[in-house]
Fold each of these.
Amino acid sequence: MRKHRLVIAGAAVLALSLTATACGTRSESGANGDTADQATKVATIGVISPLTGDLAAMGIGIKNSVDLAVKQANENKTIPGWTLKIRAEDDEAKPDSGRNAATNLTSDKTVVGVVGPLNSSVGQTVQPVLNSSKIVEVSPANTGVSLTKGEDAANPKRPYNSYFRTCTTDDIQGPFAARYMYQTAGIKKVATIHDKKAYGQGLVTAFTEEFKKLGGEVVSAQTINPDDSNFGPVISKVKSAKPAGVYYGGEYPQAGPLSQQMKAGGLNVPLMGGDGIYSPNYIKQAGKTSGGDLATSVGAPADTLPSAKDFVDAYANGGYKDPYEAYGAYSYDAANAIINALKTSLANAEDAGSAREATIEAVAKVDFDGATGHVSFDEFGDATARVLTVYQVKGDAWQPVKTDEFK
């Protein structure tokens, strides 16, 4: 009987030993839910975007799209010997919060690249922080021209060679909108309004220059504050100038109520804006009178592109409860630009931190067909693709009315 008990006790000790050994061969699950063997090295792709606040819908779409790219890379063992993870930081669409988010990511030695941010004003504070730590940054949504060409448009000079973007810029999007308004919609007199932020002001400046060049007239140029909610005074000034349309530089939290208040105040003309208003939330806030309003957005509609079909299907089947929004496909391509670069930079790296500078160099050379089409970067870090789409509110949804390459 005593011998039998000793056998049982020995077996129990052996089982516990084997269990402990098995547990010791695994690390904790990453942000993307994957587990990795101890022998597998870890590299992290950071995300900086608004995950809370008025622009959270777009920011969450960015995060989810990067998450999808990372999961697919791990499933396909795209980078042998490495497991990729995602670490998302909330910038609240605020420059100071963006700087803090970037600082948090630089302190993580496994972070080798970052996708984001959404806002150009946030991009201005994030750039120097990531660059100082030699971390590559690929934005799917920043359209401010100075981010890649500096403040002197006549003498462009790249501020940071660590910064790239997959979207087109304001100096393309603004003129594209101006041509549509003047040549296609036949609107010859407009009023402009912007929110004083880098994105909105840049769009209006580029739009105005092209609209006047075409022969159009800007009958009123107004501004609002980013936190305004009552646009009555501005609408009164614009209405008295009798424009046939209004071009707005800013994002949907202000643009939607502005459109609604315009129509309620008797200014029954279409409001047009950039990709910052291209969201279902704009229509929710603008209401039923938003029919006919217009927006431009980068690229062709993702759900109509043969190249984006796999992304759209994978996102739909990925269990994400939130839509990928305007920048989903561009975020997916931004993440894959980094992943493609990591094939080279991590090949012989001891750890992720030592591969940061090599990753910057490798991203500059990426050349592949992504969800949005061909992905590559010019000498400034800008996307070489210059395709945009004009959308119009019809019923309760945005519908594409014109897709073209800007020349």
Amino acid sequence: MAKKVIITCAVTGAIHTPSMSPHLPITPAEIAEQSIAAAEAGASIIHLHARDPNDGRPSPDPKLFMQFLPVIKQSSDAVINITTGGGLGMTIDERLAAPLIASPEMCSLNMGSMNFNIAPSAARVKSFKHEWEKPYLEGTTNYIFRNTFQDIEQIVERLGKGHGTRFEFECYDVGHLYNLAHMLDRGVVEGPLFVQTIFGILGGIGAEHRNLMFMRETADRLFGDQYVWSVLAAGRHQMGFTTMAGILGGNVRVGLEDSLWIGPGKQATSNAEQVAKIRRILEDVGMEIASPKEAREMLKLKGGDRVAF
């Protein structure tokens, strides 16, 4: 059981497009502003992607990351976690470009290749602001998000061993837990593992509560006391699943990357709104929220003074 709950906030991601919500942060200034507000609301980890400020397209450009990373660091003590998943169709080198320059405390790391289908969301958009959005979404009916064993080892070698960066291991299905266990058994990674179990992405495990329990039980068997468990769920499942995870002793992730909603039929106006809601729920049922310092201790991070931004 976690003594205190770590709240991660995934601020913008590469799944949702500008036409889906006017509140999705796009520019470096918007990403920085919403990240700082999320940290003030209670998030101890901020998970970050970058976007082209002209049209909101996901971008791997380190220059864009460097427009908001220092601003967030100067205004918050939160742990900054940079994506290595990037956006649809990016190469491994593109996905690693910003992390290798920034040398962050944490990065995400997807634990297996998978069908990653977000095409159904295109049908819910009445009008697109930018030409790239509709084909970007609809093209995922024929898209495989590549994360081979070689890719995973390369990321761990270049970032983990090269920079002292630790990982948010993103597990979208049961097999991803076994992939991570394989890496642990071979000494490629070491504990404590921050295991983010993910529910509700088409191509991954479904958002059913029995699946949450099974993923947790499987992780318990595979990792014992060598892991820290966290949960995120896509869309309307976000708050229910994170509440259940917190009650069960886990940690939670919210944010506009994972869901654009704050309640049935009501879009969230900011990342901070989602952080404040899950914090309120968890505190109301007796949970305590971890500070950035406590999160660093739980996950054995190198510290914010050892990053390159």
